[in-house]
Specification:
The structure is a single chain. The protein is an alpha+beta fold. About 40% of the residues lie in helices and about 20% in strands. The protein is built from 3 helices and 3 strands; from the N terminus they run βααβαβ. A 3-stranded antiparallel beta sheet has the order 2-1-3. The longest helix is centred in the middle third of the chain and has 14 residues.
């Protein structure tokens, strides 16, 4: 049986009031209708990433079915996800 790795929250990211991390991730999922260039463009617009990073993330979306394209505070991730969703891509914001 393979070993499983537990991912524990980093103490410096915990919100003192709730004990939960304020950090989130944005996950983008593959679909059959957006073009490569559309995905690259929206990732750059939503996350201010480089062309190289947007291409790598788009490759992951296309070949692996999904990619974590951004991480940060909840509000920042919600904003990025809303921009990405404007072209019809399934996108989810999840807590770390």
């Amino acid at each position: 049986m393979p070993e499983q790795t537990a991912i524990l929250p980093r103490p410096e990211l915990l919100d003192d009031a709730t004990g939960h991390g304020g950090e989130c991730i944005v996950i983008v999922f593959d679909n059959d209708y957006n073009t490569w260039d559309q995905v690259v463009g929206i990732l750059q617009k939503a996350t201010a990433c480089s062309l190289e990073e947007a291409n790598m993330e788009t490759w992951e979306v296309h070949n692996l079915g999904r990619s974590i394209v951004h991480h940060g505070p909840r509000a920042e991730c919600d904003r990025a996800a809303a921009i990405i969703a404007t072209i019809g891509i399934k996108v989810v914001v999840d807590e770390l």
